[in-house]
Write a sequence for this structure.
């Protein structure tokens, strides 16, 4: 799983919506929805959401159900915490943290509790805007409406009184390395996402059922929550550069810094 894909889609959909100024999309109704979405996001400086995530992987017969929280602060900082339901020694169900992702704008810090791994995914330099837009998904960085129309197919494929379903398909191979399809369920009343389905090139699927979403929440997002965590001493530490030459997700061991 490419970490930028999931953190960016959840915490950066607002950037995508703000960049998706209507015009040239071909479907007047889709353009109207995007206008409402853009207007809803215009005053947004931060958000907080909770969700259920159902994971369907090709290598495993059973779906995995997780619970999570995500926060986002403009322009490019965010955090996502994931939990899984487990049964303790006394047979009681409880939620156990499985992963944490923290984006500080330059690095996505990934903490995997089951395998005790800390991975620093280094994002492309801000000075290299073209590389950043290509590799870390436009949802993290924001791109022009013209480039969205050039790089992605957007289609309004279903609509009810309450919700609209929008399909996002990448046109080019470099974007298809990140995801093969994204489906967005948008509330027609609030113009906020209700659900997001991410399909990866290898066939794995991640369904985010967004149970709550606050724009500019009160109390505000704590800056402390956006600070990277120091991993325990017995964890393995890796670094991965998010550029076109390392899209396979290969990891290079790093030297642990003195504590």
């Amino acid at each position: 799983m490419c970490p930028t894909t999931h953190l960016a889609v959840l915490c950066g959909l607002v950037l995508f919506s703000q960049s998706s100024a209507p015009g040239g999309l071909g479907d007047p109704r889709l353009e109207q929805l995007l206008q409402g979405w853009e207007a809803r996001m215009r005053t947004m400086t931060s958000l907080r959401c909770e969700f259920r995530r159902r994971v369907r992987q090709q290598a495993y017969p059973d779906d995995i159900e997780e619970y999570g929280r995500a926060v986002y602060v403009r322009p490019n900082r965010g955090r996502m915490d994931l939990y899984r339901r487990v049964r303790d020694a006394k047979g009681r169900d409880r939620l156990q943290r499985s992963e944490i992702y923290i984006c500080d704008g330059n690095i996505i810090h990934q903490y995997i509790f089951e395998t005790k791994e800390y991975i620093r995914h280094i994002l492309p330099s801000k000075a290299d805007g073209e590389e950043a837009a290509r590799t870390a998904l436009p949802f993290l960085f924001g791109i022009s409406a013209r480039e969205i129309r050039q790089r992605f197919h957007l289609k309004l494929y279903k609509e009810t009184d309450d919700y609209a379903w929008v399909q996002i398909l990448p046109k080019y191979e470099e974007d298809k390395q990140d995801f093969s399809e994204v489906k967005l369920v948008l509330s027609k009343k609030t113009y906020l996402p209700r659900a997001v389905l991410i399909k990866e090139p290898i066939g794995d699927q991640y369904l985010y059922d967004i149970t709550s979403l606050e724009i500019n929440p009160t109390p505000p997002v704590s800056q402390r929550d956006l600070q990277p965590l120091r991993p325990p001493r017995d964890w393995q530490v890796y670094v991965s550069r998010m550029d076109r030459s390392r899209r396979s997700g290969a990891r290079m061991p790093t030297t642990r810094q003195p504590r």
